[in-house]
Structure formats: structure tokens, C-alpha cells
Amino acid sequence: MPLSEEELRLLEQMERALVEEDPKFASTLRGTSLRRSARRRAIAAGVVFVLGIALLMGGVMIANHKVGFTIGIAGFVVMLASATVALTSMRSQHTAAAPPPGSDDPRLHHPSRGGFQVIDGGRTSRLRRPRRGGRGSAGTFMERMEERWRRRREQGGF
């Protein structure tokens, strides 16, 4: 059932108010402008990285060792800085494109279809798998070590 004209008008007013009040949050909800700017930064960093390689190679080829060494170091620093910028922009692009946690994105449940599976980690929620030796899981590593220590003390081994 489509929205009525009154509902559409109210929705547009709310959207304009959100953009005026918090433009960064609104662009995050849209997701397009943040991804686009992150992609631009990553591409520019890639171009600057190639220029850094050219500086490094040019420094190696220069006959004057002091000048060549300085140019080579400058090329390496340019490469390092551009790689850092590229990685941070790619991370921000990935987080801007990712759905919020807890959403029902089907890609989260199908890792074979290009998404990642969400795994709840931590010590308390660790899944225990049976060991391959035929016996079932006897607990965590520390619990098994404590059990061995207790058995040794009871048997008089220590």
C-alpha cells in the first residue's frame, strides 16, 4: 500500500530536519557519500604510493649517494604515508557499507555468498568441540590441567 501525499510530505519534512540538524548522521544513514569519499581517498593514496615508488627508484639510480639516499628515504616515507591513508580509508569504506550489528542482512548468514558470518566470541560463550581422540570434551585447557594436577596429587605423584 503506497503512502498518501500527507505521509510523503511529513516524511520529507522529517528527512530535511534530520539533514539540517545532523548532516553527518544523515550521510551515514544514506551511506553513499561516505563510501564515495573513502573510495576517492583510497584511489588518490594508490596514485601517491606509485609516485613514492618512483621516488624510491629514482633515489637508487642517482649517482650522488647523499642526494639519492635522501630521495629514496623520502620515497619510502611517501609510500608508507599513502599506504596508511589507503588502509584507513578502505576500513572506513567497509564500515560505512556494513549493516549495523543485529540487522537481518542475509549476507551475514551465508559466508559462501560473499558475506561474513557473525560469531559471538569471548571466554564465556566459547563453543566446545569434542576431541578427535574419541573422548568427549573435558572442558577448557585450564580445567583439564587442574584435573590432571588433582589426580597426580591424589595418586601421590607430587
UniProtKB/TrEMBL annotation:
Biased composition (Basic residues): 125-134
One Pfam assignment: DUF3040
Region (Disordered): 92-158
Coiled coil ranges: none
Domain of life of the source: Bacteria
Record's keyword terms, sorted: Membrane, Transmembrane, Transmembrane helix
Transmembrane annotation, as ranges: 42-63, 69-87
InterPro entries: DUF3040
Protein name: DUF3040 domain-containing protein
